[in-house]
Write a structure and sequence with these properties.
- This protein is mostly helical.
- It has one domain.
- About 70% of the residues lie in helices and about 5% in strands.
- A two-stranded antiparallel ribbon has the order 1-4. The protein has a two-stranded antiparallel ribbon with strand order 2-3.
- Strand 2 and strand 3 form a beta hairpin.
- The longest helix has about 40 residues.
- The radius of gyration is 23 Å and the shape is elongated.
Length: about 300
C-alpha cells in the first residue's frame, strides 16, 4: 500500500514538475529587464521571487517528507506509531506544507526591503484591505477553502461512531466501510486548515502594512502588493484542493463499498473519480503565475513627496 501511494504521488508530481519548468522558462524569457527598473524596484522583485521559490519548495517538500516518514513508520512499525496515528498525520500533510509555505511568505513580508538613507520618497496613496482582497486568486482561495471546510464537516457528520468509517443498513444487516474521512481524520484537517487561514490573514496584514518601494510609482507598488496577496491565496487554494480531492477519493471509495447498488453508489463513484482531478488541480495551481510587472514599462505620473527619514 505504501509503495502504491508513493507511485501515485510520483505519477502526479512528474507532469506538474514538467509544467512548472515550462512556466518558469516562459516567465524568465518574458520578464521585464532589470535595466528598465530602478535598483529599489529590482531588489524588491528579487526579494519577492526568492521568497516565493522558498515557499513553493516548502509546500512540496514538507508534505512529501512527512508522507515518507509516517508512511514508512506505518509500513514497518517503527517509532511505535500505530497505523491510525500515521494515517491522521498523512491526512494533514498537504495543509502542513501550506502552513510551512505561508510561514516563509510571512517572513518574506516582514523582511521586505525598507527604505534607506537620510530621506526617502513616499507615495501619497490610501491603502485598505478591501483594495488587496480583489482578483481571481482571492476569490478562488476563499471559495475552495470554504468548500473544503464544508466537506470536512460533512464527512464528520456522516461518519459512524468510530469517526473513521461509514455505516449503511442493508437488508442483510449493517455494513461498515472505511477508512472514511470522519472526525478522526477531518478533525485534525480542520484545525490545520484554520491555522492556514489565520496565517494567510497575517500575510495579508503584513502586505498591507509593509513599506512602499522607494522610486516605485503607485501602479508598480500596488502590483507588487497584489502579487504578494496572490502568492498567499495560491498556497491556500492549492492546499485546500489537494486535501479536498484526497478526502473525496477516500470517502467515495468507502461509500461505494457500503452502498453497493442504487443511486448512492453512483454518487460515491462520482466523488471518487473527481478526487484525483482536484488533487491535480491543486498541484497545478502551485505553478500558475501571479500578477507581475509588464514586460514593457508603463510610465504613469505619481504624486510623491520627499521627507526626512525620521519623520515618515
Amino acid at each position: 500500500m505504501f509503495l502504491g501511494a508513493l507511485e501515485l504521488l510520483v505519477l502526479f508530481l512528474v507532469p506538474v514538475f514538467l509544467l512548472a519548468v515550462v512556466v518558469a522558462v516562459v516567465l524568465v524569457t518574458t520578464a521585464r529587464a532589470e535595466t528598465s527598473l530602478t535598483s529599489e524596484v529590482a531588489a524588491a522583485r528579487r526579494h519577492a521571487v526568492t521568497t516565493s521559490a522558498v515557499a513553493a519548495l516548502l509546500m512540496v517538500g514538507a508534505p512529501v517528507l512527512l508522507s515518507l516518514v509516517f508512511g514508512a513508520a506505518a509500513a514497518v512499525g517503527i517509532l511505535g506509531l500505530p497505523f491510525l496515528t500515521s494515517a491522521r498525520a498523512l491526512a494533514t500533510a498537504p495543509l502542513v506544507g501550506v502552513l510551512a509555505g505561508l510561514c516563509a511568505l510571512l517572513l518574506g513580508e516582514l523582511t521586505w526591503p525598507r527604505p534607506t538613507g537620510s530621506s526617502r520618497t513616499a507615495l501619497l496613496q490610501d491603502r485598505s484591505m478591501r483594495d488587496l482582497l480583489q482578483g481571481a486568486w482571492v476569490r478562488s482561495a476563499a471559495l475552495v477553502t470554504l468548500l473544503t471546510a464544508a466537506a470536512l464537516v460533512a464527512g464528520g457528520v456522516l461518519a459512524d461512531d468510530s469517526g473513521a468509517a461509514i455505516r449503511h443498513q442493508r437488508p442483510d444487516g449493517a455494513d461498515t466501510a472505511g477508512p472514511f474521512p470522519g472526525w478522526v481524520y477531518a478533525g485534525p484537517q480542520l484545525v490545520v486548515l484554520a491555522l492556514c487561514a489565520l496565517l494567510a490573514g497575517l500575510v495579508l496584514r503584513a502586505v498591507l502594512r509593509r513599506s512602499a518601494v522607494v522610486t516605485a510609482d503607485a501602479d508598480t507598488d500596488r502590483l507588487l502588493r497584489r502579487a504578494s496577496v496572490a502568492r498567499a491565496c495560491r498556497a491556500l487554494a492549492a492546499g485546500s484542493l489537494v486535501t479536498l480531492g484526497a478526502d473525496l477519493f477516500v470517502a467515495g471509495a468507502a461509500a461505494a463499498r457500503a452502498f453497493d447498488d442504487g443511486g448512492w453508489h453512483g454518487v460515491a463513484v462520482s466523488l471518487m473519480a473527481a478526487g484525483p482531478f482536484l488533487v491535480l488541480a491543486g498541484l497545478v495551481a502551485l505553478v500558475l503565475p501571479v500578477p507581475r510587472l509588464p514586460a514593457t514599462p508603463v510610465y504613469a505620473a505619481a504624486t510623491t513627496t520627499s521627507v526626512p527619514m525620521g519623520s515618515a
